[in-house]
């Protein structure tokens, strides 16, 4: 199993550009989520999904869109990038969204918006 | 809603010394508690978790944590730290009923001196 994969690993954007961060998992997990990590802020939940076709907002959803057309993939779209979106983005997955389930994290995407 | 506090932003220890990282949570019922470790440039990896039973939980890499309901704490310990333990450590809590989305603390950065 590859686990949770994220692409790209690094990305530099100009203000106003759009892009999609890719996330895929091969563990047949129903629950997937996106976090951003900023210094001193820990992990903040952006969006999450409990299965194909079902998504919901987390703590900091503004400026981001998600969709879940398959169990495996959960892309995160930045519609019009802003410098405030400079961050490290992590995708995570777990089975059945159970409270005791371990979250499996991807290696992260480091995004810089100029 | 649940919350997690990690009161120490940075902890510095000498190699071979013992370690305790603090985690306090706020949740009305029995929480499910996790510790994750993030090595530089990597995603998060589960160290250990507690959801029932023995309040002293053993994890990977020689770590353990103790759940103390009376103190609302779940502190992480290791008797002898190795230089490779230098990393960011995150405590997380999930609700035992209702929302299954984990809440993460802001993290504690562990620095190990030779």
Short key terms for the protein model shown above:
heterodimer; A: 114 residues; mainly beta; seven-stranded mixed beta sheet; four-stranded antiparallel beta sheet; 11 strands; 51% strand; B: 114 residues; 12 strands; 0% helix; 53% strand
Question: SSE layout and pairings?
Answer:
The complex is a heterodimer of chains A (114) and B (114).
Chain A: E1 4-7, E2 10-13, E3 19-25, E4 31-38, E5 42-51, E6 54-57, E7 64-66, E8 76-78, E9 87-94, E10 104-105, E11 109-113
Parallel strand pairs in A: 2-11
Antiparallel strand pairs in A: 1-3, 3-8, 4-5, 4-9, 5-6, 7-8, 9-10, 9-11
Chain B: E1 3-5, E2 10-14, E3 19-21, E4 24-26, E5 31-38, E6 44-50, E7 56-58, E8 64-68, E9 73-78, E10 87-95, E11 103-104, E12 108-113
Parallel strand pairs in B: 2-12
Antiparallel strand pairs in B: 1-4, 3-9, 5-6, 5-10, 7-8, 8-9, 10-11, 10-12
Describe the protein's architecture and organization.
- The complex is a heterodimer of chains A (114) and B (114).
- Chain A is mainly beta and 114 residues long.
- Chain A is 0% helix and 51% strand.
- The N and C termini of chain A lie far apart (36 Å).
- The model of chain A has no long low-confidence stretch (mean pLDDT 92).
- Chain B has strands spanning 3-5, 10-14, 19-21, 24-26, 31-38, 44-50, 56-58, 64-68, 73-78, 87-95, 103-104, 108-113.
- In chain B, the strands form three sheets. In chain B, strands 2, 5, 6, 10, 11 and 12 form a six-stranded mixed β-sheet that branches. Chain B has a four-stranded antiparallel β-sheet with strand order 3-9-8-7, with no helix packed on it. A two-stranded antiparallel ribbon of chain B has the order 1-4.
- Chain B is globular and about 40 Å long.
- In chain B, 35% of the residues are buried.
- The model of chain B has no long low-confidence stretch (mean pLDDT 91).
- The chains are: A mainly beta (114), B mainly beta (114).
- Chain A binds chain B through residues 4, 31, 33, 35, 40-43, 45, 48, 58, 90, 92, 97-103, 105-108, and chain B through 9, 32, 34, 36, 41-46, 49, 51, 90, 92, 94-97, 100-102, 104-107.
């Amino acid at each position: 199993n590859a686990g949770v994969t994220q692409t790209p690993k690094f990305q530099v954007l100009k203000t106003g550009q759009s892009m999609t961060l890719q996330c895929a998992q091969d563990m047949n997990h129903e629950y997937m989520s996106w976090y951003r990590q900023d210094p001193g802020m820990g992990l903040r939940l952006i969006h999450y999904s409990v299965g194909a076709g079902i998504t919901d907002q987390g703590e900091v959803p503004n400026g981001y869109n998600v969709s879940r057309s398959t169990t495996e993939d959960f892309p995160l779209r930045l519609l019009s990038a802003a410098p405030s979106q400079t961050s490290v983005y992590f995708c995570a997955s777990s089975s059945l969204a159970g409270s005791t389930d371990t979250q499996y994290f991807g290696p992260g995407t480091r995004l810089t918006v100029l | 809603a649940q919350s997690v506090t990690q009161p120490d932003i940075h902890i510095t220890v000498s190699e071979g010394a013992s370690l305790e990282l603090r985690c306090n949570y706020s949740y009305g019922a029995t929480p499910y508690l996790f510790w994750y470790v993030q090595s530089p440039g990597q995603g998060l990896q589960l160290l250990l978790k507690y959801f029932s039973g023995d309040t002293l939980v053993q994890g990977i890499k020689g770590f353990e944590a103790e759940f103390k309901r009376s103190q609302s704490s779940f502190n992480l310990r290791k008797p002898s730290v190795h230089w490779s333990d230098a990393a960011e450590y995150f405590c997380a809590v999930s609700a035992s009923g209702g929302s299954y989305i984990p809440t993460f603390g802001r993290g504690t950065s562990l620095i190990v001196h030779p």
